[in-house]
């Protein structure tokens, strides 16, 4: 069966018509010897993207039963999708169609009409050659499993489970300790706006425990996960009894493994022992929620307390976002506990990035709390040495010190990242797929990160992120619906692959795996996004990007160099 | 005589542009009606990382006087790190060109974002001028073989 | 009555666009309305986004294109909400759609009509740093790439004079003076409010000299001045024609005290500007005059430290409201109180004010139309705001992005995603 290629040149009103000689283009292309073995239909039209133009094209394609279609018009960014829709309507495979940009990148930039005509001919010829080498790619529809696995039973994990569990979607929630709730369950009041206590969290805890569509595994960790978005197979293991395993199939995995506080003994400027009355903010929260009061080791009430912000910020290289805020909250607890306590708050910057925070600060600034801005600070037991903004050095002693250590990713993040084939960033937290546009996804489709595992965040932020994951999964992993992965993917040619595995390392998405039996690399087409990086990297030329093959690009190039 | 030859010389440049940034910049240059030398012939690829050594060498052996590879700025690659790989391959290619006695200047890598229509025009025009001064690809003139 | 499967999204900034695309993916019909003639919101005014300095156009243009080509999303530009009746599952919304006078179907965006138009206007989208005609697109690359006619200044439409210069220039018959403003009714099950923010009006604080001295710029003005698709194609030419300023003072937190909150992005913006300036004019002296450094993301401090090392001199002063900008010859003096409470002075030819983000102009009106509440700062109020929420005070109406309060792009996106989850659950 011979090729029959339709070539349509859009005049784009005067935009193309007045800048190139369309009749010359048609004449030239019709007379090319090399195309004699192909059947070409070449026509021009005033405006192909108009309603008339689209109708015209549709009829032309149907009538002529083209095998391939080339449209010389504007940029693919403008109307490629318009013409693809026409292809779909007429059952011409859209991958056998090609749009040639003779407007933006030809007619509009080349002032000499003859030169522009030449260029247009060159581009159109390149595309006529190229389409013959294109293959009719098909969308693949994959079944998917709507159920999800949530790793971590803190507030972020709980909220994720609650946003997703439904009659049609089961949620498996795993927690490595024996209790759900994470750290927030230990707080007396919630960050950051004070007028709410931990009832909210207790309520959510109850909701999770009672929800029929949520299955909770306590003292459980992830052992293995393989697969891709819509189809993961995971194995869970019991922390105490490693032989106790559970196998599950899920469509997505959400990492909500939380944070820990920096170990202050790593910081030389903070010298104290277990016997000193020096506490971390979390220890104070726990003390408060247990005793309702902050007390010294001796059991007495402290008379003077220093709160120190930003402990380890410089060393870690990031601001933990919420410490200023909760330190103000703790100062308020203390003030309410007794008006006799002298409270000094040592800070460098006040970072209060929420619209309601500053109001709270201003209230406290009007109280007896002493806010001291410092340039540097050192502690030894209960003694504090600091340098103020006026560069003077001062020393004081207090009964009790409360530190706000930097937040760090929870232990085990590295292992988890490896198991799931996702990355940690340089701060040690999990890395986003795209920091700005895709902040809760990871480079592996179907694996998401929420809460403090993703980066320092408070309860509000964690809850919002959990709901955000809800949004992503509810719109991408719909029960009963299939998933359609990218079509223009890459493939490994078995005959050429030497098994060097270079490609495995360059693929950002982990789309390539090594088939030990056959000794070759294989692209998982459900994951591949078609960037072509693997193809660029393969020393044996064994990879083929299906819509950007070498022969295809070569055809374009030959015309460019004619 | 040599002078005349150079003046009439119209370089053939192949531009491998990434779909997401530089191709969009080329469109913006068009929408802004900037004057760009017809020397360049654009071939669109999804990412600068798609460009392999063979393709570049074939393009030179096919007679290109210059090749421009252009993509997103470092950190902006639509596929995260593709352009870093492109940069690495580019550095290697430059060395290969030397061994082939092809002036490495004939191959250029540029980062041009979608908003930089003007810069796209400048890069192409300046590159064209540079190639014009270098003269035709010696391989093309059969002086190499 | 069965629930409507459609959703109304108000505001086509990054937040509104993200939410619309997600909803469309789940098979919802989306009406995305935008009051301006172009979609994209504030982020497309930026050349690059902190902290990775990614080109905003590269980031956002593919999203804008997706929106315009999406079959499930009906975009209505030049549109605002006039009336909302009903309740969750069944809202009847009346949209006030202004005439564009240029057909979105027939116009191909060639731009031939601008030049012949005799009316020259200030271009507010370019922060008045550029001009436009009565028929215009706000900036090159605007999407949809179809001009709008400003009916008040167009000679023909305002009845001042018979003019048809643009009609004659248009080969596509795309211009239609008879187009009328329309009222459109749509039925939706839920509403997402993503109307974004405005910037604090710097003329309220005369001590900073904005509007009085041409060398004083707002942050947004600087963004446009620096943008390669902006009024000067990214060249730093000041209002008085001085090219390349030698010294620049960037003042943080302008308006923070007055508004009563920190806007969370201004410190990073200010450091971004220091970096930009250093790149363009390596010899320039740049000062960042700050009171608190607020860099609330795991990746932000590193950016700040790089800028501190390479691009700027940090100047601490505890009371921004005491800063005074005055004229000194052809330059400017910035007087402030230092950490010891003593007055000091910095001289510069350019001052950039990092202004507080404030509620969008229409927030009050919109809150009445929608029947939802505002918080004490004038942003939309959410329920249980102490534990993070996108639910407004009315069931079925959600708020996301800067309409809820100042935030950066990633946090706006997170709220967009969260609101989508709520919408889907409430339409089940
Ligand atoms: C100077 C400056 C620089 C910044 N730089 C960065 C940066 O580098 N990185 C970063 O992460 N963040 C940055 N930000 C923050 C960033 O701009 C915001 O996070 C982001 O734009 C918020 O998106 P949005 O969609 O919520 O709001 P917007 O971008 O404001 O979009 C809202 C949209 O709604 C429309 N609208 C408003 N009211 C109505 C109505 N009543 N009816 C219909 N439509 C309406 C508006 O016209 C607009 O198109 C910066 C902010 C400023 C002020
Ligand atoms: S084309 Fe890109 S995404 Fe696909 S396998 Fe190769 S490197 Fe990975
Ligand atoms: S009618 Fe005249 S004034 Fe009005 S937009 Fe057209 S050219 Fe401008
Ligand atoms: S209105 Fe007409 S002249 Fe103006 S941009 Fe559209 S098609 Fe071109
Ligand atoms: S997508 Fe542009 S360089 Fe990778």
Give descriptors for this structure.
heterotrimer; A: 562 residues; FAD/NAD(P)-binding domain; 5-stranded parallel beta sheet; C: 428 residues; alpha/beta; 9 helices; binds flavin-adenine dinucleotide; binds iron/sulfur cluster; binds FE2/S2 (inorganic) cluster
Q: What's the story with the biggest beta sheet of chain B?
A: 4 strands, parallel
Sheet with the most strands: spatial strand order of chain B: 2-1-3-4
Anisotropy-based shape of chain A = elongated
Query: What's the CATH topology name of chain B?
Result: Rossmann fold
Q: Report mean pLDDT of chain A, rounded to a whole number.
A: 92
CATH class of the largest domain in chain A equals Alpha Beta
CATH homologous superfamily identity of the largest domain in chain A = FAD/NAD(P)-binding domain
Q: What name does the CATH topology of the largest domain in chain A carry?
A: FAD/NAD(P)-binding domain
Q: Give the N-terminus to C-terminus distance of chain A in angstroms.
A: 29 Å
**Percentage of residues in DSSP E strands of chain B:** 15-25%
Largest sheet of chain A: 8 strands, mixed
Number of helices of chain A: 17
**SSE string of chain B, helix = H, strand = E?**
HEHEHEHEH
| CATH class membership of chain B | Alpha Beta
Number of strands of chain A: 26
Weakly predicted, low-confidence segments of chain A: none
What does this structure look like?
- The complex is a heterotrimer of chains A (562), B (145) and C (428).
- Chain A is of the alpha/beta class.
- Chain A is built from 17 helices and 26 strands.
- In chain A, strand 3 (68-73), helix 4 and strand 4 form a beta-alpha-beta unit.
- By secondary structure, chain B is α/β, with parallel strands linked by helices.
- Chain B has a single domain (11-132), classed as Rossmann fold (3-Layer(aba) Sandwich).
- Chain B has five helices and four strands.
- In chain B, helix 4 (82-99) links the parallel strand 3 and strand 4 (107-111).
- In chain B, helix 2 (22-31) packs across helix 5 (117-134).
- Chain B is globular and about 35 Å long.
- The model of chain B is unreliable at 141-145 (pLDDT under 50).
- With 428 residues, chain C is α/β, with parallel strands linked by helices.
- Helix content of chain C is 22%, strand content 26%.
- Chain C has helices at 14-25, 56-69, 165-169, 219-226, 256-259, 266-280, 300-310, 363-370, 409-427; strands at 6-10, 29-33, 48-49, 54-55, 73-76, 79-87, 90-97, 120-122, 131-133, 135-136, 148-149, 182-188, 190-193, 197-199, 216-218, 247-254, 285-290, 313-316, 324-328, 331-337, 343-348, 350-355, 357-359, 397-399.
- The chains are: A alpha/beta (562), B alpha/beta (145), C alpha/beta (428).
- At the A-C interface, helix 12 and helix 14 of A face helix 1, helix 2, helix 7 and helix 9 of C.
- The structure holds flavin-adenine dinucleotide, iron/sulfur cluster (SF4) (3 copies) and FE2/S2 (inorganic) cluster (FES).
